Amino acid sequence: MEQTDKRKNLALISIMLGAFISLLDTTIVNVALPDITTALHATSETIEWVISGYALAFGIVLILAGRLGDKFGRKNIYIIGISLFLIMSVTAGFADSENSLIISRVIQGLAAGLFFPQINATIMDMYSGKSLGKIFGILGSVIGVGTAIGPLTGGLLIELFGATNGWRAVFFVNVPFVLVTLVLAMLYLPKRTVSTKKISFDLPGVGMLTIALLLLLFPLISNGANDFKPIDYLLMGLSIPLFIILYKWSVYQEKKGNQPLIAPNLLKNNQFVSGMLLSLVYFAAFTSIFFVLSLTWQTGFNRSAILSGLAISPFALGSVLAASNSYRLIPLLGRKLLMLGVALVIVGLGTVSIVFHLHDGTFSAWLLFLPLFIAGIGSGLIIAPLNSFTLSTVHGIERGGASGMFNTAQRIGSSFGIAVVGSVFFRTLGNTAATSKASAFSDSLQMSMYVNIALLIVCFLLIFRLPKNI
After folding, report:
1. The CA-based dihedral angle spanning residues 118, 150, 388, 187, taken in that order and rounded to the nearest 10 degrees
2. Which of 44, 121, 202, 346 could make an SS bond with 403 (beta carbons 3.0 to 4.6 A apart)?
3. CA of 331: how far to CAs of 39, 136, 273, 377, 394, in Å?
4. Could you give the CA distance from residue 312 to residue 293 in angstroms, rounded to a whole number?
5. Which among 159, 142, 464 has a CA at the least distance from the CA of 305?
């Protein structure tokens, strides 16, 4: 029994490290973009694809990767994804041109999208009952920390290694984490228990889903915080009929006794769909917080990357503390726990906005410690229970596909949030009548916080769609 528990713990460390590095890499590179632009003599618009290419590739393969795990074994796909991620981290660090760096980052994003859905599905294979809630609490902590400390980690590496080599260290820092992950995965991740004969593969569904996600995500990610053009709205609009056709195709395949890429019965599962929708909206509000705060501290207040990262770190601290203990509160509060979490994030962000309103110009980051800590606690009470509630309603060979759909909803939410909140931020920045740069950024941040709060209110309303006991 003790040996079995040791193997499970080491397997758990492996997949938690995978979750950490994949989400760390969504934000760690942001602070290094100016140095990368200088070192590779690239335009800032082109080099932004170092961020966008990773996010786009990550998002479009998640559902496919989940089904690949169902078909060929989660351990096998996890190891392939992690190995590819390792190789691309090294090639990105040694990149000598903007094109080679962008190609490395796109393939690195594909690798992350390949192994990430195996994490949730493997957790559900290994744990159940109260233990499942506890493990999802740990995963929630990892998600919160990985996303929030990216700017701090990137700033620290640039501070240590300088502008010339610091941006390369941002990619090389993955290597030791990935090597440990890979060794532990090969030795301790459980092998598949379901026969591959029971699982078919839906190639037309793969094609339709990939195109639909590209049409939806490309405008959101490639434009980032810039204003949309008519062509962007057209592309996003074209994704809607494709998603409808994909659903009709999936229903047709299921009636024929085949297994479509998107299982229609998952979309009939009210708990799963409600949790997925709530996760999409919450990640739209959650991820964009770090984007506008980092921009304000670095560009608006002329603070270093490391100081900007430290200013945001109270959110990560609060998230870790709450997420790691949230499983204890789920049986007591049910969906009220999610309501409490959203309310705390609203209070925290509302207070952040007030702090910026009361101070004309730069001020100490200590004034933001408590409100960001409160918002982080709220976030920790949301992410882990929402993972547990949504994915625990799925069983058997559908777990990989369900995990991919759930993770895709989070990536779409993140991209949508950064595009919308960033657009409001820059539009306000361009129209403000503030007399100083710091005041202008403060005004813009306040306006973007109002958008975040509006999204959180939508989250609060969506919670009422969930069963009372999660």
Report:
1. 40
2. 121
3. 53, 14, 21, 18, 19
4. 7
5. 159
